[in-house]
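4.2 Preliminary Data

To establish feasibility before requesting continued support, the project team ran the inverse folding procedure on a target of 384 residues. The structure was first converted into the token representation described in Section 3, and no sequence information of any kind was made available to the design step. The complete token record follows.
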């Protein structure tokens, strides 16, 4: 079942899943990289500070082997002397320990970044499950770690064996050297050996880091179903979103139907499109589209306009242009100002005729729209 589950995980991890893993403290780590950085930094620090540390530790040793009469006969003085020796030794070693500690922390940040998570410290009995532990041991990951450990041990032992063979005669010759010279040469050989071992760890880390990154993202891979479920959680259920969209459209239609009786004019196609316009001088910078629709909705707008004595003006080019380029509750595009101004002037004259009488205004002729605004063919307008 585990193999089938792993085979089903064919999709790359999403950004959300990677973020969740980081929040739980799950980031790529390489023990080999950490070992290499700690060792190389420690060796380099010893190399740089060797002279100062030699003098300090030499002084501590001389102080430790020096015993005054008061210290020999006074137990309290002996305790103070031991405390002073311990303090001097720790002061000498403190820079090295602090630098190694910083290197240890930095070695984890280099690959996985700086992460603080309380999940790591939570008590979890499943971590102590011997069955799961055995499964991890016999898994492919456990096998890879075993092979890597064997290779590392053999490789480092090989390097160490080569160094011993390389300096075998010099090490035997140390016995015939004066103590100071012999100790200095032995320290030099130790530093060379430490750098050589560090270099061998660098090669192992260079192979381990790409593997750990690959393995990390492999473990986070998702099945297609997990990806779908995550999309639903982040973007919402498509059915729910569809219902919300349908509800919003219904509310928008209701608002439009409520605005049609207050419109100044409805420009029609005459059958396919209907656009209701309203203009209030001093409140609006330009006429505003309060409702628009096509086919059945256009018919509903026309019928509602007739019931409320709102003038209808058939002008297919203008109706098509307004329908395609104007938005509800927004002013008409600037390119249609001239065409709509001709319509509004006629409506103003019509309202005066209805209120005061006199000669009826003549309906505008063909209302042209700028090139590119009308997707159809012009036809002469008529008034209803």
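Position-by-position output of the design step:
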């Amino acid at each position: 079942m585990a193999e089938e589950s792993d085979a089903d995980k064919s999709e790359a991890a999403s950004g959300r899943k990677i973020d969740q893993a980081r929040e739980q403290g799950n980031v790529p780590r390489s023990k080999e990289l950490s070992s290499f950085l700690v060792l190389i930094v420690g060796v380099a620090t010893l190399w740089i500070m060797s002279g100062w540390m030699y003098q300090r530790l030499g002084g501590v040793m001389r102080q430790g082997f020096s015993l005054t009469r008061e210290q020999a006969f006074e137990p309290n003085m002996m305790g103070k002397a031991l405390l002073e020796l311990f303090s001097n030794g720790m002061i000498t070693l403190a820079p090295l320990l602090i630098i190694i500690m910083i290197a240890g922390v930095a070695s984890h940040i280099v690959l996985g970044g700086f992460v603080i998570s309380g999940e790591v410290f939570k008590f979890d009995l499943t971590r102590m499950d011997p069955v799961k532990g055995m499964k991890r041991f016999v898994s492919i990951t456990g096998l890879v770690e075993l092979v890597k450990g064997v290779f590392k041990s053999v490789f480092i032992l090989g390097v160490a064996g080569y160094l011993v063979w390389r300096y075998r005669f010099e090490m035997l010759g140390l016995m015939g050297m004066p103590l100071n010279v012999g100790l200095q040469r032995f320290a030099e050989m130790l530093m060379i050996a430490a750098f050589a071992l560090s270099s061998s760890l660098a090669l192992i880390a260079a192979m381990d880091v790409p593997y750990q990154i690959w393995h990390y993202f492999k473990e986070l891979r998702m099945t297609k179903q997990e990806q779908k479920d995550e999309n639903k959680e982040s973007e919402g259920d498509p059915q729910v979103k569809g219902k919300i969209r349908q509800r919003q459209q219904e509310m928008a239609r209701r608002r439009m139907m409520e605005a049609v009786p207050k419109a100044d004019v409805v420009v029609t196609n005459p059958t396919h499109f209907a656009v209701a316009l309203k203009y209030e001088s001093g409140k609006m910078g330009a006429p505003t589209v309060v409702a628009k629709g096509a086919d059945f909705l256009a018919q509903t707008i026309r019928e509602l306009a007739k019931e409320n004595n709102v003038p209808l003006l058939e002008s297919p080019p203008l109706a098509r242009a307004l329908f395609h380029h104007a938005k509800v509750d927004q002013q008409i595009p600037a390119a249609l100002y001239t065409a709509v101004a001709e319509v509004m002037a006629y409506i103003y004259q019509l309202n005066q005729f209805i209120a005061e009488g006199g000669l009826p205004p003549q309906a505008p002729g063909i209302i042209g729209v700028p090139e590119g605004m009308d997707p159809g063919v012009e036809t002469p307008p008529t008034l209803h």
